[in-house]
Design goal:
319 residues; alpha+beta; 3 domains; seven-stranded mixed sheet; five-stranded antiparallel sheet; 8 helices; disordered N terminus; DUF2797; DUF2797 domain-containing protein
């Protein structure tokens, strides 16, 4: 289990004094997946021990058992983390691991919600390719250097331009209306598309045509510095050659075990082979908030497995 490596103290390693004072001592809580320069990693938080990272590398064993309940992860802004003041419980099936109060506070800092119009940082406008007919437009802080596209599981992308936040927002709106590309679509479509993606050359051709059309549009802000076409592909980062069709999506419930080996990671999804040979997908957004304990590497997976939605239709909801 990731928690058992690279950490000085596990959730079970509390002192006898702490246990005598608290019948339910604090444990390590999974805070989701994070993409950095070294690739993807699971994030762990502990009220006394701070934060740890466990790399999610191919062929690494992954085995754990969930705790009795899933708790709100609070709010994280940059390097600062504020725990949920209410210690609220979060529904096991929710994509978000925040309670309503923490979600509102988090959104009050959100660029996506247009609540930080005075943000002085430069922003990139991008076109992202997730699958045939699945291309979106979006913006991301330039300082993140493409990490947002890894988090979203874009198979390929290109930058259109860079400028102040409101200029990037204006360009995003113009592109969405003029080119007919959305800013989001159902996540199930992304999973299906990555199982048999066309080669990078095909993706690049799609993006090049859209990039050329975008540069020729009127109405783009003058303060947006347009960028030449330079596609980026995530085949190696996601280990796409190791992704195989997985009929099941792991569902997290209290006291459930997952055990297997990592095949690949794309965005928030971990593709793994269970101890009994099943190809499964684990959405780390739904793993977030659970306290996890180590399990045997060859333990049976007792977590429920739901049959996946496999349609890659036109957008009908949010990802």
């Amino acid at each position: 289990m990731p928690q058992g490596r690279g950490q000085r103290q596990s959730a079970q390693d509390q002192s006898a004094q702490d246990q005598s004072q608290d019948p339910q001592p604090a444990r390590w809580q999974c805070a989701g997946a994070r993409w950095g320069r070294g690739g993807p990693a699971l994030v762990w938080r502990h009220p006394a021990q701070g934060e740890r990272l466990s790399p999610l590398t191919p062929d690494r064993p992954l085995s754990f058992t969930t705790g009795p309940r899933r708790d709100c992860v609070g709010v994280r802004r940059g390097a600062r983390h504020t725990p949920c003041p209410a210690g609220a419980e979060v529904p096991p099936s929710a994509v978000s691991a925040q309670c309503p109060d923490c979600a509102r506070l988090d959104r009050s800092y959100s660029v996506a919600a247009d609540t930080r119009t005075d943000d002085p940082r430069p922003y990139d406008v991008y076109l992202a390719w997730f699958g045939p007919e699945l291309v979106k437009v979006g913006i991301t802080a330039a300082e993140r250097e493409g990490a947002r596209l890894l988090e979203q599981a874009a198979l390929s992308y290109c930058l259109l331009g860079r400028g102040p936040l409101m200029a990037a927002r204006r360009a995003e709106a113009v592109l969405g209306a003029a080119l007919g590309v959305p800013d989001r679509f159902p996540y199930a479509a992304k999973r299906t598309a990555r199982e048999a993606p066309p080669p990078p050359e095909r993706r690049a051709a799609d993006l090049a045509a859209l990039h050329q059309r975008a540069r020729g549009l009127g109405g783009l802000p003058e303060s947006l510095a347009l960028a030449p076409f330079d596609p980026v592909h995530h085949d190696a980062a996601f280990h796409l050659d190791r992704v195989r069709p997985a009929p099941g999506l792991i569902q997290f419930v209290p006291e459930a075990t997952v055990a297997g080996r990592i095949d690949a990671v794309a965005g928030p999804d971990i593709h793994l082979t269970s101890a009994d040979g099943q190809a499964l997908v684990m959405d780390t957004r739904q793993l977030t908030g659970w306290p996890l304990a180590s399990a045997a590497a060859d333990a049976p997976t007792t977590a429920p497995v739901a049959r996946r939605e496999r349609e890659a239709e036109a957008p009908e909801g949010l990802f």
